[in-house]
Amino acid sequence: MVSLRTKTNDMSTIKIPQNGLPQGLNNIPFGQVFILTNPSVGITSKTIKYIECIHSLASKKKLNQKNSTVNSLPVDYPGLMDCFICKVKTEDGVQILVSDKDSLIEMLCEFWGLDYEEVSKIPNIIPGWHINNNGVTIGGESHPVRIPVIPVESARTSAEKDDYGVSLQLVQSHSRDITLGDIRSTFRDNFNYGFGISLEEVISLYKDEEKNRKTYKLDIQVKWKEVREYKHPKWVIHQKMTACDISLIDNFGNTYPIKIDAMTKAIYLTFLLFEDGIEYTQISSSDEFYELFKQIYKKLPRAKGTPKKFNLDNKADLDTFTNYTSKTRQAVLRVTNDTYAEEQFAIEGRRKDVYGIAGATADNRAFVRKEFKIK
Q1: What is the pTM of this model?
Q2: Which residues contact 147 (CB under 8 A, 6 or more apart)?
Q3: What does each C-alpha distance from 323 to 34, 49, 124, 319, 328 come to in angstroms?
Q4: Residue 192's CB: how many other CB atoms inside 10 A?
Q5: To 5 degrees, how large is the angle CA 60–CA 66–CA 72?
Q6: pLDDT (tens digit, 9 = 90+) per residue, 244-264?
Q7: Dihedral class, residue 82 (left if φ above 0, else alpha if ψ from -120 to 50, else beta)
Q8: Ramachandran region of residue 170, left (φ > 0), alpha (ψ -120 to 50) or beta?
Q9: How does pLDDT run across 140-167, given as a tens digit for each residue?
Q10: How many Cβ atoms from other residues are within 10 Å of residue 164's Cβ?
Q11: Which of 217, 170, 169 lies closest to 360 in space, CA to CA?
Q12: Strands 32-37, 69-74: parallel, antiparallel or unpaired by DSSP?
C-alpha cells in the first residue's frame, strides 16, 4: 500500500511554469527517473551525486528496487533545473511527478510503490554526502508536484505514437478539450486531497489570470550608418548595419530583448522568412534557405566571413545547427519566463520535422526583406 503525506502544492518550493511543463516532458517513458539539468552547464558533480543517491536508495542494502534507471534531460526553464521527474499511473490517471532535493524520496516511494512513512523511519536512509553538503533531505515541508497527463490524439503517424522517446523541441497540442480536462483534474485534486479551494477563490483566480494575460508581438529594429571605404580605383560611400535588435513586446508595453549571437540571429531571421516553416530534412538541400541565410548573416554586425552550408546528414553539423536553434528557446525563456512566448517566438517544431517561428507576421517578414535587401 503506497502512502504519501497529505500535501498541497502551495508548500512546494518547485516552480512550475505558468503554462505547464516544457514541451516533451509529458512524453517521458514509464520506469525511469529523470534529473533536469541546465543545458549551458550539463551534468555537474552535483548531478552525479544525485544519481548516486538514487542508486544507493535502490540498492539491496536499502530499498531493494531493481527499477532504478536514471537519465538526465536539459530544460531551459530555470525553476526546473536540478529537479527530478517521473511518470506514474494513479487512480486519477497518468501523472508526472516533479520533485526537488527535499521531496525526492517521497517521489521515489510512489515511483517504486513503497510506503513513505515507513521508508522515512529507516536509519541512515540518506547517504552521508547529502547529510553533510545540503543535498537530498527527508521529512521536510516540500512535496512532489503532480501534473496530470492528458491523452492527446495528434496528427502524428502510428509509428510516432509508438515512439516514447523524448522530444523537447516539438510544440504541444493545445485545445479547449485538453484545457477543460486539466481544469477537471485540478478540481478532482481539490476534493480528493481536501485542499479546500472555494468557488470564490477559483473565480478570483480566473479574473486575475484574465486581467494579467500576456500576449506578445515580435519587434525587429535595424540601424545603418554611412561608411567611406576605398574600393579600387576610388573611394565609395555605402551603408553598413550597426545594429539588429530583436525583442518581444507584450500587451502591457514591456520589452523583452532576445539576446543571441550573430550566427543564431541569422538562422532565426532565415526561419522567420519561411511562413509555413521548413523541414530539417530539406535544409541541407535547400538553395533558397542557404542563400537567404548567407545574405542575412553577411550584413549583420559582428558577422565574420561567409557562413558554410550546413549538412544536416552529418551528425556534427546537425548537433551544431540544433544548438543554434536551441539558443533561441533559451533566449526567449530567459527573458520572458513564459513557455507560451517560447512556443510562439523561438524556432520550434509545429509538426513532424517542420520548424518555424509561429508568431512571426507578414509585416515581420516584409521588414526583414526590406532591411536586408532581399527580393
Answers
A1: 0.56
A2: 16, 20, 21, 26, 95, 96, 97, 98
A3: 21, 27, 42, 6, 9
A4: 10
A5: 115
A6: 999 999 999 999 999 999 999
A7: left
A8: beta
A9: 778 899 888 765 433 333 333 333 333 3
A10: 11
A11: 217
A12: parallel
